[in-house]
Automatic annotation (TrEMBL):
It comes from Bradyrhizobium japonicum. It holds the Pfam family TetR_N. This is AcrR family transcriptional regulator. InterPro entries: Homeodomain-like_sf, HTH-type_TetR-like_transc_reg, HTH_TetR, MT1864/Rv1816-like_C, Tet_transcr_reg_TetR-rel_C_sf. The keyword Transcription regulation applies. Keywords: DNA-binding, Transcription, Transcription regulation.
Length: 217
């Protein structure tokens, strides 16, 4: 009678719950997955980001305990990229020309918002998480507001402004660029006869019209 062959150990089939992830930077992958979901207009959750990243549902929670934490990370990255765009634009604007710098800031805002609609949506609306819950975003927004305040204060000191109320100008400028960016994101421009390739030129024209309106002749 032939000797009985030893049975092979049974290999446990890996399910999505047991499959190990092989990403070198899981945090980075989850942020990218959440951004992709937001760009598609899909519901964002930690578990859905894990599914998109092809990792076990429990793996992300060591980095992000909940959706707010995940979206705060996405928003933080968006804000850093936005700041980098602003800094490049201001580096190219003369330090002695506050209205020129104010214009450069506004154009950088619009160019970034139009080129990064998903990031803009995340950092400009409360749809995904409460912005006030992120100390980083709160601090960063305060710094940007202070930056525009200094530009307008310098312009006022140089006698360049029509109005003696820089705060009103600051809020009007913010409303202008935010409204323009929202119109672009929501697809309003075609009904106004502005083609896809014309939005940046229109943005420049709108900013220049605003600057002309606040500057002394």
């Amino acid at each position: 009678m032939p000797a009985r062959q030893p049975s092979k150990p049974r290999t446990r089939r890996q399910t999505p719950e047991t499959r190990p992830y092989h990403h070198g930077d899981l945090r980075r992958v989850l942020i990218d997955a959440a951004l992709q979901l937001a760009a598609e207009g899909a519901e964002v959750s930690v578990r859905e980001a894990a599914r998109r990243a092809a990792v076990s549902p429990g793996a992300p929670f060591r980095h992000f305990p909940n959706r707010d934490a995940l979206m705060a990370a996405v928003a933080g990255e968006a804000q850093r990229r936005f700041r980098a765009e602003i800094e490049v634009a201001l580096d190219q604007a003369p330090a002695t020309d506050p209205l020129g710098r104010f214009r450069a800031f506004g154009l950088a805002y619009l160019r970034w918002a139009m080129s990064n609609p998903a990031h803009f949506e995340i950092i400009s609306t409360g749809r995904y998480f409460a912005h006030g819950s992120s100390a980083e975003l709160t601090r960063d927004n305060a710094e940007l507001i202070a930056l525009t305040e200094r530009m307008l204060a310098d312009a006022a000191e140089q006698g360049l402004l029509r109005s003696a109320d820089p705060k009103r100008i600051q809020i009007a400028g913010r409303a202008l660029v935010y409204g323009f960016a929202r119109m672009n994101l929501d697809g309003h421009f075609p009904r106004w006869g502005v083609g896809e390739g014309e939005t940046e030129r229109m943005a420049e024209g709108v900013i220049d019209l605003f600057i002309a309106g606040i500057a002394k002749p």
